[in-house]
């Protein structure tokens, strides 16, 4: 609608036309003039950032002959998890990855019972984690109740495991998802027990030869905690190699079985390659 107002200026009639815009932004026009062409306002939606947690990923070794592979990646900041199709369903020997939990449970039990940790116990904890000393962790395992330590995982960390050989912690059967949950639990719970901060320090100070796989793929200078496990089993003719590490707010487990003839270096390389692939797809 237009409102016309007539005024006299110097004997001439001046017509002032006031255009009143409607609520849809359409302006009235002077009769005989051409309608204005509406100009669309360009809008640009922000790009959708998609990560491996949204899309999943294939790894360079998914189809290697003779390789059993399972991996799981957890993001504590985003409460997200992604993994191979078998990451929560297929189990394998825990091997030395279990040493992180055995040492932590030893301190938990000592704290609950009001028992002091001896210097020799402390030395065994350091050796079990930093050098993956089997004899050292065996002493701790026996003193903490042997297979009861595995059952404690359910009560403390909510992870249910059992061993296929009574009295053997290395034969505890875990999934890749279990492996990440156990390391996360250790990093969270250990500092709450007297002396537990040193377990976290040990996990960040593993001897270089034992910190293969995942840490090798991380950007230089990245702080990480790691506890790998590896054994060549003559009875099966296979290596069991488990790479488990945490950095920033991520925890990754890469679990492998493959023919002994390929050596440990092959397994370390698979762990490294899987990590590299996942890093390239993180948001």
Q: What portion of the residues fall into strands of 2 or more residues?
A: 15-25%
Helix content: 25-40%
**Ends: how far apart?**
54 Å
Structural class: alpha+beta
Morphology call: globular
What composes the largest sheet? 6 strands, antiparallel
* CATH architecture level-2 label: 3-Layer(aba) Sandwich
Helix and strand pattern: EEHEEEHHHHEHHHEEEEH
Mean pLDDT: 88
Q: Tell me the total number of β-strands.
A: 10
What report would you give on this structure?
The chain has helices spanning 52-55, 99-112, 119-130, 134-143, 148-157, 176-189, 197-203, 214-217, 263-279; strands at 2-9, 12-19, 68-75, 80-83, 92-93, 173-174, 224-226, 229-233, 238-247, 250-259. It is α+β, with helices and mostly antiparallel strands and 283 residues long. It has one domain (52-279): DD-peptidase/beta-lactamase superfamily (Beta-lactamase). The strands form 3 sheets. Strands 3, 4, 7, 8, 9 and 10 form a 6-stranded antiparallel β-sheet that branches. Strands 1-2 form a two-stranded antiparallel ribbon. Strand 8 and strand 9 (238-247) form a beta hairpin. Helix 2 runs parallel beside helix 4 (134-143), helix 3 packs across helix 4 (134-143) and helix 3 (119-130) runs parallel beside helix 7 (197-203). The radius of gyration is 32 Å and the shape is globular.
